[in-house]
Every structure is written in structure tokens, then in C-alpha cells.
Amino acid sequence: MKILVVNAGSSSLKYQLIDMQTEAVLAKGGVERIGIAGSLLKAKGNGKEKVYTQDMPNHKIAIELVLKALQDGEIGVIKSMDEIDAVGNRIVASGEYFKKTTLVTPEVLKTLEEKTFELAPLHNPAAATGLKACIEVMPKTPMALVFDTSFHQTMPEKAYMYGIKYEDYKEYGVRKYGAHGTSHKFVSQEAAKYLGKQPDKLKIVTCHLGNGSSISAVDCGKCVDTSMGFTPLAGVLMGTRSGDIDASAVEFLARKKGLNHADTVTYLNKQCGVAGISGVSSDFRDLIAGEESGNERCALALDMFAYQTKKFVGAYAAAMGGLDCIVFTAGIGENTPTVREDVCEGLEFLGVKFDKAANDRKNDGTVHEISAKDSKVKVLVIPTNEELVIARETAELL
Ligand code: AMP
Questions:
Q1: 193, CA 20 to 30 Å: which among 58, 88, 107, 111?
Q2: Contact between 372 and 390 (Cβ < 8 Å)
Q3: Which residues lie closer than 8 Å to 233 by C-beta, 6 or more apart?
Q4: Residue nearest to ligand 1 atom 4, measured at CA
Q5: Under 8 Å between Cβ of 34 and 14
Q6: How far is the CA of 15 from the centre of ligand 1 (A)?
Q7: Cα–ligand 1 centroid distance for 282 (angstroms)
Q8: Phi, psi at 282, each rounded to 5°
Q9: What's the distance, CA 239 to chain centroid?
Q10: 126-164: per-residue pLDDT in tens?
Q11: For 96-233, where are the alpha helices, taking DSSP H only?
């Protein structure tokens, strides 16, 4: 079985074709600048790369070009489109409308469009545009929606509720949904595999630390809490996102800066986080370089990030009543040893015995252990693979 995984943004579209027998990536690539001058597709297959430059005014043309690349004489990996058994589409927000991976029908598409767009106005409309383009080009191929939020659906009510009027939660669905669910699911399962234990015997805190960051408590294989909230603005401070902030401070800031509601949320999403604190960059490589050259605001941004992440680890150990394993993943989690060290520093009381030499070893793209052999709590670096989870979920649904 071959599954095409599609992750569509407003002007971009990333894809992977995965063979489910071996879980090998047969082909992958990305379209950039859809609807903008200079659109291009970078496609890989058969160990080669090819760049297609052509006008792609919309997602339909982009998908058509992806299918052409998949069947290309040089980099192609399939003979005809019929070899694609299903398409798994990544969807950021589900609200309470979708609890698990869902096969697309006209009703499902309607619900996606009518109910979920306002929950993720940047992401869901773009994903729906990509999905509709796939349906147009491959009308007979089954399509699945795989939600970033599904893995968090096991959170108990006490974890996902906000302290607002219950009637308002019921009426508007305002509660914690979380994000990066496919990543948290993947790395928690990989951790169990690596440790040679059944997932239902483990209490794991997964730290997905990237441009967007979230931390989850995974107890017995199920998510019981997560740091992101109603939207991916909540939790720790991120590249440009503020993370958690007192709602009254938001209103105060808006008044002082003369911003309306929408602009205030944009400000908190795009101008804050470590970029706003440092005044230098949202990229942790720049922050580390800044800290090394004596920039105090870069040092503060890094300190805040590690401190806030550490607090979630502690809180989730308390929530689960114990801790067996901490996992670091995503761009920062996989590649930035100083952040991992700062997060784990002082967690000895929980049973973490950190191995600095192992932590400093270069990331080789495999699972590696950065806790001492006799550490009660294992600390692991695990490369995430969200596309593989989307493909697995799609295959399972079929
Ligand atoms: P992501 O959103 O998962 O792609 O992560 C982006 C973040 O990861 C940025 O802050 C980068 O600085 C950081 N990052 C990505 N790759 C590396 C790397 N090779 N070395 C250090 N940091 C990296």
C-alpha cells in the first residue's frame, strides 16, 4: 500500500509518498509560492532531486505537478496515479467536531469548512484548499483527515477545561485542544520501543521543541495533558509566540498599543516569544550565538525557554504521579544540547541523572540516550516523524 501524505499551507504544499509495507519514503518534496510569482516544486525520488519552476496559481495546479513528478521518467517512483492507495491530509485544528482520523465525505468536508476554520484561520482553510485540490485531481482515491489534535483527545476534562463559565465552554467549545499530536504520539511510541517496554507501563513527558513548542504528559500511552491550548499560542514562549500570559495583561497591552482584538492576537503570535525578548531572532542558533557573544537579552530568552519547559516537566510528573522518561524532539529538541541540558538541570530530585558527554554528541538522526546508565528517569532524543504517523493513521483507517 502506498500513501501520499499532504501538508498544505496557504502558499505551500509538502508531500511524501510512503510505502506502508516497509514504511520507506519513496518520494518527497515541497511546492513553494503557490499563487505567488516564482512558484516552484522541489521534488526528490530515486535518490535524485529535480526542481520544477512553473506558474502555480492555485493548489490544484500544484497537486497536478506533484503527481507528474511522482510519475517522472527520471525521479518518478510510480507508473500511474492508481498506485496511490490513499491520501492523508494533515489538519491542525479539529475543535470537538473530529476526535480521530476521519475519511473525507462531502459532509465531513462541509463540517471542516463551516466549523473549524475559525479555530485555525491560518492553517485549516489552507489545508482544505489543498484537500479539495487533491479530490479534484484524484476523485476516486480515499482521502483521510489526520488531526494534530487527535492524540490529545484522551485528556481528562479536568485537564482540558479552562476556568470559564461552563455554559460558554458548551456553547463555544472554548477549551484546550493541544497541537503537535502526531509528533507527541510518534516519539512516545518510539520511546517505549527503545526502552523495550509496553507503552502502558510508562509515564513520559514529551517535549516537542521547535519554532512552535509544546510539552505533553503521556501516561500509559495516552495523552493526559499538554501545554498548548485552544490554539497553538499557549504554553511555553516560542520563536515568535508569547506562550501563556495573563489575559488582563493582554487587554492592558492592547489598550496601551492601540490594537484591536485581531491585531493583538497577531502581535502575540508574531512579534513576541524569544524573538521579542531578544530583539535578535526567533532562531535558537542565532540566540545561542548572541548569548556567546555576551548579548544579555539572548541569554534571557534562552533562560526563559528552558525554565518554562522545565516547569512543564515538573508539573506533568506531578500530574502523572511519577516519571519514567523525558523525550526531546523537533528542531530545537533534536539539535540544541544546551537547551536540553538547561531543561534537565535541577531535575535530579525527580530521578534524572544527566549524561553531559552523551548530550553533547552530534545528532546523527537516530534515537539517543542522554541520561546516565543508572538514571531512574531515562532522557532520550528522538527524531520526530509526523508524516509517518499521518501515513500510518491513514492506512489504519482504510
Ligand atoms: P522546527 O520548527 O522543528 O523546524 O524547529 C526550528 C528551530 O529549531 C529553530 O529555532 C532552529 O534554530 C532550531 N534548529 C533547527 N535545526 C537546527 C540545528 N541543526 N541546530 C540547531 N538548531 C536547530
A1: 88
A2: no
A3: 241, 242, 243, 265, 268, 269
A4: 331
A5: no
A6: 20
A7: 10
A8: -90, -10
A9: 14
A10: 899 999 999 999 999 999 999 999 999 999 999 999 999
A11: 106-115, 124-137, 157-160, 166-172, 181-195
Which three three-digit cell numbers place residue 1? Answer: 500500500
Residue 211 Cα: closest atom of ligand 1:
2
Ligand 1 neighbours (beta carbon < 6 A): 210-211, 239, 283-285, 330-332, 335-336
| pLDDT at res. 119 | 87
Residue 352, C-alpha cell as written in the block: 534524572
Q: Give the other-Cβ count within 10 Å of 334's Cβ.
A: 18
Q: Which long-range contacts (CB under 8 A, 24 or more apart) does 162-169 make?
A: 162/229, 162/230
Strands 213-219 and 222-226: antiparallel
Whole-number Å distance, alpha carbon 285 to ligand 1 midpoint, is: 7
User: Is 364 among the residues known to form the active site?
Assistant: no
Burial zone of 197 (CB within 10 Å; 0-12 exposed, 13-18 middle, 19+ buried) = middle
All three cell numbers of 319, joined, read: 500530574
Give the chain's count of helices (H) and strands (E): 15, 14
Q: Could you report the per-residue pLDDT of 175-218, keeping only the tens digit for each?
A: 999 999 999 999 999 999 999 999 999 999 999 999 999 999 99
Expressed in angstroms and rounded, the spacing between residue 133 Cα and the centre of ligand 1 is 31
| C-alpha–C-alpha distance, residues 74 and 374, integer Å | 51
Helix (H, G, I), strand (E, B) or coil at 8: strand
